[in-house]
Structure formats: C-alpha cells, structure tokens
Design brief:
This protein is of the alpha/beta class. It contains twelve helices and seven strands. Helix 10 (288-300) links the parallel strand 5 (275-282) and strand 6 (306-311). It starts with 62 loop residues before the first helix and ends in a 6-residue tail after the last helix.
Length: 372
C-alpha cells in the first residue's frame, strides 16, 4: 500500500519483500538473540514529488532497466505493449458517499486514525466503510523493501513508536467499526521484524474492542519462524500474507522476497489453526497458466483458506507497467476454479483488494480462532 491506484492499497501492496536475505526458501528458527540488528533500508531518495518505493533497478545498475522486460512480460510473438493507455470501463469505481460513509470518515479522522483506504484512494472505500471495515497501518510509513508494484516510500524508517499498540487500541475503541484490517510496512531494520509490536497491537485491540474482529496482514519476517509465531500467538481472527504474484515474476515484482518462503509462511499460519488468507494480482506480466499454478500452490502446499484476486494498476511511471487488462469474465472463471480447488472463500474481480469483504470473511470463518 497509491497516478493510478496500485494493486491493493497504498500500504498493503508493499508487504512481503525483504532486503539482504538469502535464497533459502525455508522458515528459519534462529532465535532473536542470535540475530544482529540490521539497518536494511537506505535513506529515501525522492524520484517524484513524493518519495516512492518500487524502484527495482536500485542497487542493480542501469542494466536492470533493460532486463526488466525479460522478467515481467509474457514475451508474446507480437503485439506486446508497455503502455496500455486508457483503462477499460470495468475499472471505473463509484465515488464514495452516503451517511454511513461520511459518519465513519469523520469519526476516524477525529480519532487520529490514518487509514490505508484513504491514502490509497481504494476503489472499494465507500462499500467497505459502509459495511464497517477499514484498514490501518502500523510501524510507520517507510518500508525497508522496494517492491516493483508498490507506492509506499522506501528508505530508513524513523524511530519505532513502542506505545503504538495501546494508542491504536484506544483510537479504535468506540469507532463503530465491526472489523479492522491491520497491515504494516516491512521492517527489516528491527531484530524481530516488528513481530512484538504486531502481537501487542492485536492483543490491545482485542482487549479494548471485544466486539471488533481483527485481520492481520503481515510480511514474511525474513523467514524467521519464531517471529511469525509471536504474531500467531496473538490470535487475530484472520492472518494474511500476500503471495502477490506468480513464481517467475518475483525477481521484478518482489525482488527481496521468495515465492517458496511466502508459501511456507502461509503453511505455518494454516497449521496454527488461524484462518489463512493470501492475495494475487494479475495483469503485471503473468500468464493464465502461471496464475492458476500459484492458486494451486497456495491451496495444496500451504492449505490457504481465503484467496483474493484483483487487477494490478500501475501507481506511477516509476513502477512496473500494466501488461494486460483482465476481463470480469476471466475473474469470474478464476473464482469458480478457486472454489473447485477447495478454497473456502474466493473474492475475484478487477477492483478486488486484499481487504475486500473482509468483515464477512471474519464473521463466517474467523471468530472461532480467538482465544485458542
């Protein structure tokens, strides 16, 4: 998780890449005390009026600019384009409004809560807020990774606010929300990747807002199983980690992440008994066959229960180009395929984002996980 709208939200979309990691795809069990504190991020360098993330050429020299097409594009025999021009009609979103939307917007602002929904101009903000769902971001607004699709700024994060869990819970208390999605930037600079802040935030929100269900959308914690377990033990109703794209695309889309490692994160979540969830974006260069294989991998190798699929939208010219506009009929066919694969819930459509209909998913599948 921000131009045109990026795939998810301004803050959600950058989750899952990490700098300075090895190619080991398995989850590490190295204790926190044995790991060194690393400042993985570099000072943010503005490339626009606002510092942006997603510069996949950073640190790889100018040659990456010409190599990127080999990683991203379908390499079709003819007709391949880098610029897709005007968006099709089915990408148009309705302007948010109505009494319920306005009331929640004013209440959240009065409480000092900054939502990803507004910052990202999410196309579903009106529908989600009317249903009592919002997405907030913790651990700052500066990511230590540089994913090729995400518009969150990349750099060295500021000092961590250790009081943030209590403050977020207080701000959410009495907000009128039924479900909150909590996400964050990647914090590879912290010894535990922010796991302690994550766990304390979930617990504080549960204590202060017993009527509010919580969905946590986390990164991969550089594959450290003990850090992931800290978050798992806080028992959010839904615990999500976004695979984002197909295996071939990871070097360009998520250059500091690993496909197999993300599947292992999802497998650990599923094994814990918490409802697991992941998201995929399309139209960034993958083929239908690759997308369907990723769907199968997440279901068969990681036992994921909830899947969302949506259209990638290029946030700025600095980011990876849109390769194709996927039709609503194709999204509908993927929904049917996902349900046939055994997913309990599949949300698939051009404007679907990770938190779309999240409150309904929590009500149907997540309530039983609290307190286990």
């Amino acid at each position: 998780m921000r131009g045109s709208l990026p795939f998810y939200s301004a803050s959600i979309n950058r989750l899952d890449g990490h700098s300075g990691v090895t190619d080991n795809a398995q989850m590490s069990t190295t204790p926190q005390s044995a790991r060194h504190h690393q400042q993985a991020g570099q000072s943010a360098q503005p490339r626009h009026r606002r510092p942006l993330g997603g510069d996949t050429a950073r640190g790889h020299g100018r040659s990456a600019l010409v190599q990127l097409g080999d990683q991203v594009l379908n390499n079709a025999p003819a007709g391949q384009q880098l610029h897709r021009g005007r968006k099709p009609d089915w990408i148009r979103a309705k302007a948010p409004g109505g009494p319920a939307f306005i009331k929640l917007r004013d209440d959240l602002r009065s409480r000092g809560l900054h939502t990803v929904c507004e910052e990202a101009s999410c196309p579903n903000i009106g529908e989600c807020w009317a249903r009592g769902t919002a997405t907030i971001m913790i651990l700052g607004d500066t990511c230590t990774r540089s994913c090729g699709f995400c518009n969150v700024k990349t750099g060295k994060p500021p000092v961590t606010d250790l009081d943030e869990p209590r403050r977020v819970a207080q701000q959410l208390a009495g907000s009128g929300l039924k479900h909150v999605v909590i996400t964050s930037v990647d914090r590879d600079d912290l010894p535990d990747g922010g796991a302690d802040i994550w766990a304390r935030t979930v617990r504080e929100v549960h204590d202060a807002c017993p009527e509010l269900s919580v969905e946590a959308l986390v990164g991969d914690f550089k594959g450290n199983k003990l850090d992931l377990e800290v978050v798992i033990e806080s028992r959010p109703e839904i615990l999500a980690h976004n695979l984002e794209t197909v295996e071939r695309m990871h070097p360009a889309v998520r250059p500091q992440a690993r496909y197999d490692r993300s599947l292992e994160v999802l497998r650990e979540i599923s094994a814990s008994g918490i409802v697991s969830k992941t998201s995929l974006m399309v139209g960034i260069g993958e083929t239908d066959e690759e997308l369907e294989q990723a769907m199968l991998d997440a279901r068969q190798r990681a036992d994921v229960e909830i899947l969302t699929i949506g259209q990638y939208l290029q946030p700025t010219p600095n980011h990876l180009p849109v390769d194709r506009w996927v039709t609503p009929d194709k999204f509908e066919s993927w929904k049917g395929l996902g349900l046939a694969m055994g997913y309990r819930v599949v949300e698939s459509g051009p404007l679907v984002r990770s938190s779309y209909h999240a409150e309904a998913q929590a009500a149907r599948h997540g309530d039983a996980t609290r307190g286990k």
